[in-house]
Fold this sequence. Notes:
CATH topology: Rossmann fold
Oligomer: single chain
Strand content: 15-25%
Distance between the termini: 40 Å
Structural class: alpha/beta
Amino acid sequence: MNENIQFLQAFLKNPGTVGSITPSSPELARRMVAGLRPDENNVLLELGVGTGAITKFVQEIVPNESSYLGIELDRDLVRTLKKNYPDMKIVRGNALEAADIHRRSGFGKVGTIICCLPFVSMPNEVGEGILQEIDKFMQQGCIFRTFQYAHGYYFPSAIKLREFMRDRYGKSKRSPLIVKNVPPAYTLTWSTK
């Protein structure tokens, strides 16, 4: 099935867990993985894999199966992802349980989190719970990278995410606006390494 159609179907099925009607562009995906070097002792954790628009580029930098763990909530998307990325460990699960899912995987320490979750459209308590999960990895030394759409950059939930991370890990490194994405977006990166 066409990636754009599948993404739109996922959005229509549950707009609270899918933040856009189109997958991330190659330009945004490249920016999300820029400079990352995962390995078995520096696992890349992707939260909200979606259709794999970013995973496609993650696959190019992951040296082996033990260096990547993807978590996606939507059952149909996971089924397609497993077909499209058979060498990538992608599990159906909730980001609210990310630390437990990682522990059960038996993989090494998470060194990078790529987060594609729509904090702007999810309920506050869910967003806060996911930030607490992310915090567990950050306390162990980690890079956290996410993106925010330009039109939603000053929404209360977007500001809340940035304040939560800034208060714990300092100011983010923000990319220039990525205009070749629908909608245009910034990447934001925090590091405790």
